[in-house]
Amino acid sequence: MEWLDVVSAEGEILGKATRKQCHEQRLRHRMIQIVLAHGGKLLFQQRSKSKDVYPFLWEVGVSGHVRSGEQAASAAARELFEELGIRPRLQEKGCFELSTPKELAIVHVYYGSCPQKLHVDSQEVASVHFSEKIPSPITVASKVALKIVCPKDHRWSA
User: Fold this and answer.
1) What count of other Cβ atoms lies within 10 Å of the Cβ of residue 44?
2) Is the pLDDT of residue 116 over 60?
């Protein structure tokens, strides 16, 4: 069972709940979204069909939840290693509130360079590729993260 901190709009920890409770009750929690680049292209992954939220949708880089008591930067490093088997250096680029019918979260956005060689976890990820074009359909969090990381590059306007 994965426990997440329930947070205020300002990020103050109010309590904790399971991931399932956060989604079912739309409790605000923390997430990460990591934009990864290699050779002028961005990494996109198609979410596994087994995902309970947004199965088979595309997303830029890697996303995940920040566990209870965990820092966002640590969650970013953990998710990258779990999903792609890599440990690149990351830059924090900002955060935003994500409010969809399935999620209410403060999303911390990171950017990093990605090696070409990945060790993809097929339980988490259906497909991965580097591209100069945004695949469709793509998650809302990915669209916002791209605007934060690449605000003046219109190739990444979704």
Assistant:
1) 20
2) yes
Q: Which residues pair with 67 in a beta bridge?
A: 4
Kindly indicate whether the domain formed by 3-156 is annotated with CATH number 3.40.50.300: no
For residue 92, count other CB atoms closer than 10 A to its CB: 13
**Residue among 83, 82, 110, 79 at smallest CA distance from 96:** 110
Start-to-end CA distance of the chain, whole Å, equals 34
Token digits for 69? 């008591």
pLDDT digits (tens, 9 = 90+) for 75-103: 999 999 999 999 999 999 999 999 998 89
**Class of residue 107 by CB neighbours under 10 A (exposed 0-12, middle 13-18, buried 19+):** buried
Mind giving me the DSSP string for 123-138? TTEEEEEEESS--SSB
pLDDT tens digits along 22-31: 999 999 999 9
> Per-domain residue ranges for the chain?
3-156
Q: How far apart are CA 93 and CA 111, in angstroms?
A: 7
Summarize the confidence of residues 105-111 as an average pLDDT: 97
Is the CB of residue 126 less than 8 Å from the CB of residue 49? Answer: yes
Residues shown for the chain:
158
